[in-house]
Design goal:
15 helices, alpha/beta, about 45% helix, elongated, 4-stranded parallel sheet, 3 domains, Rossmann fold, binds zinc ion, single chain
């Protein structure tokens, strides 16, 4: 089965064909490390992780690169505000970023190149662009002339006329020949870090960072480039212009963009106090996996309305999956295996794939998986040992795509019960007797009795 999805570049659904058989090379725009990432950023990162995991599940050898923008207007501004060095400020947010993605169970990229460590690569692209006549120097800065690249505007689907009249230009305040031309290299300014180059002291523009770092690690022509919809223009449009004009080759075959996130029907903003970080939500008592579940369960081309009610629903859905695994591990099935169940697993997995292959239709895929849980729950008593193993292996495959359960589903019942007991002990120490009682009840409903003894808590299976 082929993977089909919407390519921003062609404005239509396309079947994925990799440049090199069996391999998928992907670049995703990473964080600008001047602040903690917020749930809007995480929506993109979690979706990108879902896509990557699905390619891995589909047996592609995936190479993933994500940049870290550790120099730009915002990082410099922050360092000046804090009266600190750029390195110290950015390192703090780089650490926070890695911490957050680990919590959200996002698979790490193969390389996280930092802009400040790839200045030479940027300089050489700018030199080529100047030599080929795509770039010009004005004052202390170097600009890309969009006049020279007739395809400019194709990704964002905007015509040249429209570009000249309406669209917002690059925010950089430097002189340039044409209002839409964008800066490749910014001349040195007081109080800013700079590098010496053949075209003068200064620092790189933001867009050139991604062209230089993607091509260095993935080659001049690679498969997929992802980001949020707000990256389409001008950032990705500019990346295409710089890369194609410098190499004379195609740059990226497929562009995938994730929609925005709003919070409780409102635009997310610092002034409204709804620009939540991961830590904010964890402080409110939400589990990281619940947050991940909510972020990935809306189709990526739809606006995601992030609400606390939605988080509660995500919690319930996740609990259904976890309870299901818990019950399976608690069975004492007889030896054997039946074709009915193995056929059912096969059929269900085909349904799961069919949905994921259809523009990553996550709601459809989740729906199919919950149908599976429902059916097996109804037939729990008829499962034999081999069936249980096959079911657990299937859950692991689905979870290798979703990533919403941190432990392997075939972890022993013993281990899962011990985790619950530890949780209950902690609750009792904290005098949270309501939580402690609810854990006891939860276990009891699954036929597990807890016995408090002077030596600690023991457990036994209730006789049916
Ligand atoms: Zn980028």
């Amino acid at each position: 089965m082929d993977i089909r999805f919407y390519n921003t570049l062609s404005n239509q659904l396309e079947t994925f064909n990799s440049i090199e058989k069996g391999k998928m090379r992907i670049y995703t725009c990473g964080p600008t490390v001047y602040d903690f990432a917020h749930i809007g950023n995480f929506r993109s990162y979690v979706f990108e992780d879902l896509v990557k995991r699905y390619f891995i599940y589909s047996r592609y050898d995936v190479k993933h690169v994500m940049n870290i923008t550790d120099i730009d207007d915002k990082t410099i501004k922050k360092a000046n505000e804090l009266n600190s060095s750029l390195e110290a400020v950015t390192q703090q947010f780089i650490d926070a970023f890695f911490n957050d993605i680990a919590k959200l169970n996002i698979i790490k990229a193969d390389v996280y190149p930092r802009a400040t460590q790839h200045i030479d690569e940027m300089i050489s692209i700018i030199e080529i662009l100047e030599k080929k006549g795509y770039a010009y120097q004005k004052g202390d800065s170097v600009y890309f002339s969009i006049e020279k690249f007739p395809q400019y505007g194709r990704l964002a689907n905007v015509s040249r006329d429209k570009l000249n009249t309406g669209l917002r230009s690059d925010a950089d305040e430097y002189e340039k020949d044409n209002i839409q031309d964008f800066v490749l290299w910014k001349g040195k300014k007081e109080g800013e870090p700079f590098w010496a180059t053949p075209f003068g002291d200064g620092r790189p523009g933001w867009h050139i960072e991604c062209s230089a770092m993607s091509m260095k690690y993935l080659g001049e022509h690679f498969d997929i480039h992802m980001g949020g919809v707000d990256n389409i223009f001008p950032h990705h449009e500019n990346e295409i212009a710089q890369s194609k004009c410098s190499t004379g080759k195609p740059y990226v075959n497929y562009w995938i963009h994730c929609q925005h996130l709003i919070v409780e029907d409102q635009k997310m903003s610092k002034s409204l106090g709804n620009q939540y970080t991961l830590a904010d939500l964890i402080d409110r008592g939400y589990d990281e996996m619940v947050i991940r579940y909510l972020l990935l369960s809306t189709h990526y081309r739809k606006l995601l309305n992030f609400t606390f009610r939605g988080l509660d629903q995500a919690k319930k859905s996740l609990m259904r999956i976890n309870d299901f695994i818990f019950s399976l591990n608690g069975l004492k099935p007889v030896e054997g295996e039946s074709e009915t169940f193995s056929d059912f697993i096969k059929e269900n997995e085909i349904g799961f794939k069919k949905n994921m292959n259809d523009d990553f239709n996550i709601s459809g895929a989740l729906g199919v998986f919950f149908e599976f849980i429902h059916y097996i729950n109804l037939h729990m008593d008829n499962l034999k040992k081999g069936d249980v193993e096959n079911i657990l292996a299937y859950i692991d495959r689905v979870n290798s795509v979703l990533g919403v359960i941190k432990q392997s589903s075939s972890d022993t019942l013993e281990k899962q019960i011990m985790e619950k007991i530890t949780l209950r002990e902690r609750a009792r120490q904290e005098k949270n007797f309501q939580l402690a009682d609810s854990i006891r009840e939860e276990l009891k409903s699954k036929g597990i009795l807890l016995i408090d003894t002077p030596d600690g808590v023991r457990w036994k299976l209730e006789k049916k």
